[in-house]
Amino acid sequence: MASIRDLLLPIDVDPIKPKPREGKVPADDVNAPPQPSLTSRFTIEIILDTICPFCYIGLNNLNTAIAIHQTQHPEAVFDVTCSPLVLAPSASYDKLSYYTEYMGLPSDRYAVWTEYGTEAGINFSWKGRTGNSRDSHKLLRFALESTPTVTRSVTVTQPRQTTTLTGTSTAASNMTLPPPNPPGQAVSYQTSMRHASAISAGSVVPSSPKTRGPALQMRLLEAIFKGYHELDRDLSERQFLVETAVGVTGFAARDIEAVLDSDEWGRAIDMLCAEVRRRLPTPIIAVPTIIVNGKWLYGGRQPVEYLVAEFERIRLGQPRNTKAATNTVPESGVGRTGVDGSRGVTMSMPDESI
């Protein structure tokens, strides 16, 4: 027989099951909104040209943001690769003339680059010569895979069969970024070059070949950036490229020279550049462009603080849902037919991968 207390309970209340405390949703409530799963793995593609100062700044800012996020979340893993976008195939100038005459940039742009570079730990030098960056992209791709393919760089992270220009091959295994700094160790925005950032061109003693993958590609990219933008080396000079690639990758000079001489590697770079231009949403044709997890696109030089905040939003499954495409390209490098603005561009691509 039911007690008087039982009869006084509302009919939708189970007398045996305790009532949940105010403000808490029962774990078995099927009507409760699903909780987003936390993201601990970040696949990042940075589209860039080695000739572009903003790309060097952007890479340093990205490295710093990654280091800060990994300090806060040691379980986070980042796979970072780069894809080519050659801005000036016919470039052959001294460095100052290239940026002011060929690219048509204002003379005060150097002060802007120098200021941002100092903040990012870069000591820009505007001496020396510049040239076509295509060969440097050949070597960056060689650090990622042994046979030239037109596969997107972000897919070259683990052994797989891929289509090459002449057939099929198996790509090298994945390498991730080095482990984060010990918990509690501060990471400043000015000290971002965490893996081989202090490598100067030609200063590394050749060793046995390293394992190809994202980490090796990033080390080579940083060494090329440093040699060209800080040490007055010619980006198109064969000796500089061979010395740098041998020192960083450990491959023999003859292997590096074979890549530089290869028409097949050159065709792969040309096709990858064309693929990037087709893939990116209009009007973003500038570098650097960062794509996170194939979904979130950030055009131009992004501040460290902003990237740190975005990584946290993505980790929580709640990234900023903006589609702020504009007719200006943020502080970035562009081709002669492009535009050069001052505002950042962030695009979310929730329905399809980029």
Question: How does this structure look, described?
Answer:
The protein is α+β, with helices and mostly antiparallel strands. 34% of the residues lie in helices and 11% in strands. The chain has helices spanning 4-8, 53-72, 95-102, 109-119, 134-142, 214-229, 238-249, 253-261, 263-279, 304-315, and strands at residues 41-48, 77-84, 92-94, 129-131, 161-163, 168-170, 289-292, 296-299, 345-348. Strand 7 and strand 8 form a beta hairpin. Helix 5 (134-142) packs across helix 9 (263-279) and helix 6 runs antiparallel to helix 7.
Task: Give a summary of the structure in a few sentences.
The chain is an alpha+beta fold and 354 residues long. It contains 10 helices and 9 strands. Strand 7 and strand 8 form a beta hairpin.
Entry keywords:
two-stranded antiparallel ribbon, alpha+beta, 5-stranded mixed beta sheet, about 350 residues, Glutaredoxin, 9 strands
